[in-house]
Amino acid sequence: MNKIVFDIQHVSYRYDEVVALNDITLRVTTGQRVALLGPNGSGKSTLLRLLDALCFADSGTVSFDGETLDRKRFEDDRFHFGFRQKVGLVFQNPDVQLFNPTVYDEVAFGPLQLRWPAEKIRRKTGEILERMEIVHLKDRSPHRLSGGEKKKVSLASIFVLDPDVLLLDEPTAALDPRCESRIIDLLIGWGDGKKTVITATHDLGLVEDIADCCFVLQNGSVLAEGRPAEILGDEDLLLRANLVHAHRHRHLGGKEHSHPHSHPLPTVIKLYH
Amino acid sequence: MTRSLEDWLLTNLVEFKKYASSAEDSANVHGLLQQVDPRVKIVGALALILSAVAAKNLGAILWILGLSIALAAASKLRLDRLAHWVWRPVLLFSGPIALPALFLTPGNVLAWPVSLQGLRAAAFLVLRAETTTTISILVALTTPWTRILKTLRALGVPTVFVAILSSTYRYMFLLLQTASDMSDARRSRTVWKLSAIEKRRIAGAAIGVLLSKSFQLSSEVHQAMLARGFRGEFYVLDDFRLRAADWLWLGVLSGFVAAIMYLEK
């Protein structure tokens, strides 16, 4: 049986008066690929921040590799550096994550803070820039990159640490379809599929590619847990969780009714070139 | 039609973005100063600035200004832009400060009420300001900002100071974009002409929202730094190497400064 990486027991968290997480209990095991599904404001991002020990639970416990994560534990440098080496978080907004003057500095930032030897930092940074096909961007300022390039640099800045657990917050948000597809390929290929990946998303089209287990969140609580096919096949559950919508419409020659669905792309396309 | 404060601010913000973008482009052109090691460039610029400040001879300052202009041309910088960004604003700023010296400094009357000593004092002030600013801007326009920050570190400026500079530069653009978007969003929903009081009220509210957004952004950026192991102290990679051409440049500059000092005697 796989080892438990994260053990979350009855965790609650609030921002002043707003409850973000309410009595959440879940477990993630080594090598598992987990999707946290939920609409905006369901608590996905807060849960990722708790898992990355950027904030700590008001009540309940979050454990990583059997060690409870709390402020006191992070006062120990050895534990702090060990944890940061093993767990990487990619933020939803790349502008938050890219604060260094150049792409090269951005990728080297994590290893530098973890006090790796200079030679190892140069080697690993060079390798990851090549693997992510962003060598040509290395001297550019992150603020002058496109959305897709920023996302690649964000991922590279975490991949360079080669963490055991990767936390992703809406990895494909605001990307065009081509960039989205490239990012998904990178995520699927990362760590030969042996690493633990926890992805927060409300993009249902992404789930089957990047997860083998889903937790559906609503208003800070776990509404359901299951395999992607089970979750995606349960329309009532998705409707209840606000992950799909239904509106009233008429089928050709059929009666008027409502159910969750997606619209096909328009078929009348005018090509100019 | 008179422009509102908001229009004026936004026009200047756009102008600043253009300047920053142009500065980054000129730093990557294949010119003379672009080839020089940034450390040598900064040390050389400091030596020239100190020489200009210490000079008691107008001719010496003019030589330094002349050298700066020649370096700008050799570095493929557009002199019309230098005039627009540097010489004109500096003249507009230092000119009014120097103006009273023309009339108030006692001495030989050149043409009433201007005295020769007054003219000299005013010329010293304006020329020093023009020369030192030109030298500083030469460094900024021929060195990528990232290299300037690294050089400051290599020259022993505290890491935390360099990190603050770096973050300020980085997030300034994001906040400028946010401010510009907020203004566009407000204009697209404004039908009637607003009174001056209403405009001020909206501008005040927008400043408040921007401040709140910047607080939120700074908190998230800090979390992103913590997530990658940051413990309050910055570590950076220094990878500068001096080449023969840098030593040659240092020698030429030292010779020039020595000549200026000789001229001073």
Describe the structure.
The complex is a heterodimer of chains A (273) and B (265). Chain A has helices at 44-51, 77-86, 94-97, 103-113, 118-131, 147-159, 177-189, 204-210, 228-233, 235-240; strands at residues 4-15, 18-29, 33-37, 59-64, 67-68, 87-90, 165-169, 196-201, 213-218, 221-226, 246-250, 256-260. Chain A is of the alpha/beta class and 273 residues long. In chain A, α7 links the parallel β7 (165-169) and β8 (196-201). Chain A is globular. Residues 263-267 of chain A have low confidence and may be disordered. Chain B has 265 residues and is mostly helical. Chain B folds into two domains: 1-27 and 158-234, no CATH class; 31-143 and 239-264, no CATH class. Chain B is built from nine helices and two strands, in the order ααααββααααα. In chain B, β1 (109-111) and β2 (114-115) form a beta hairpin. In chain B, α3 (58-74) packs parallel to α5 (116-142). Classes of the chains: A alpha/beta (273), B mainly alpha (265). The A-B interface holds A 49, 52, 54, 77, 80-81, 84-85, 88-89, 91, 93, 95-102, 105, 108-110, 112-115, 118, 121-122, 139, 141-144, 157-158, 161 and B 24, 144-146, 149-150, 166-167, 169-171, 173-174, 217, 220-221, 223-231, 235-237.
Which properties best describe this structure?
heterodimer; A: 273 residues; alpha/beta; Rossmann fold; six-stranded mixed beta sheet; four-stranded antiparallel beta sheet; 10 helices; 12 strands; globular; B: 265 residues; mainly alpha; 2 domains; two-stranded antiparallel ribbon; 9 helices; 2 strands; 77% helix; 2% strand
